[in-house]
From TrEMBL:
This is VOC domain-containing protein. PANTHER family: CONSERVED PROTEIN (PTHR35908:SF1), HYPOTHETICAL FUSION PROTEIN (PTHR35908). Residues 11-121 form the VOC domain. PROSITE patterns: VOC.
Length: 121
């Protein structure tokens, strides 16, 4: 961009997740993250860490199930990886192998198969 035209600021507002059941998947993520549901419409289910605090996560309906590895995924850095792993697994997250080999992070899938990583503290 030309300097004389000013600058543009981008603000990260949302992560959008396609879901067969946006309400169920959004509720699952709200529970494991301890986030707040700010919109519980089936057409656009949204959670935020606190109301009005961005970025948030929006779950939108799709008709086809996930069939391949995510092109984008979320990484979470817990204060205690073992306790966080126990929490995720108690909520139904499952460990998955996407070819990561032996690493300090753990790859999980949420109830609809979306991969995310639990980093080492």
């Amino acid at each position: 961009m030309d300097a004389d035209k000013g600058s543009v600021t981008l603000r990260w507002e949302q992560v959008v997740v396609d879901a067969l059941d946006p309400v169920a998947l959004g509720t699952w993520w709200a529970e494991v993250l301890g986030w707040t549901i700010v919109n519980d419409s089936p057409g656009e289910f949204e959670i935020q860490s606190e109301p009005g605090v961005l970025p948030g996560i929006i779950f939108e309906p799709v008709t086809a199930p996930k069939t391949e590895k995510n092109r984008v995924h979320l990484d979470f850095r817990p204060t205690d990886q073992t306790a966080a792993a126990d929490l995720l697994e108690a909520h139904g997250a499952r460990r998955v192998d996407i070819g990561q080999g032996d690493q300090q992070w753990i790859v999980y899938a949420d109830p609809e198969g979306n991969e995310f990583c639990l980093l080492h503290h």
